[in-house]
Design brief:
Blueprint (H helix, E strand, L loop, with lengths): L17 H11 L31 E6 L3 E6 L5 H4 L2
Antiparallel strand pairs: 1-2
Length: 85
C-alpha cells in the first residue's frame, strides 16, 4: 500500500493447490475466461496489525503476479448513488 510491501506469498502456500481449486469449482459451475478465483489472504492483512491499518481515500494499492503483470488502483470515496443499493 502506497509503495510499502504489506503481503508477499506464493501459490505454493495455499492449503489446496490451484489445480484442485479449479477442479472443485468447475464441478459446481462453468469457469469462463476472465473469471477470478479468490483464495483468501496471506499474513500481513491490515486489520490484523497493531494498530489496525485500514485503507482510506487516496491510498494506492498494487497487486502483482510474477510473470503475469500488475494492477494498481486508488481508493476513492464511494459515490452516493452506489451507497443507496
Amino acid at each position: 500500500m502506497n509503495g510499502a510491501l504489506r503481503q508477499d506469498s506464493r501459490t505454493d502456500d495455499l492449503i489446496f493447490d490451484c489445480y484442485a481449486l479449479i477442479e472443485f469449482l468447475s464441478t459446481a459451475f462453468t469457469l469462463e475466461a476472465g473469471d477470478v478465483i479468490l483464495t483468501g489472504t496471506p499474513s500481513g492483512v491490515g486489520f490484523a496489525q497493531q494498530p489496525p491499518v485500514r485503507l482510506v481515500p487516496g491510498d494506492r494499492v498494487r497487486v502483482e503476479i510474477e510473470g503475469l503483470g500488475a494492477i494498481e488502483n486508488e481508493v476513492i470515496v464511494e459515490p452516493e448513488a452506489a451507497a443507496r443499493f
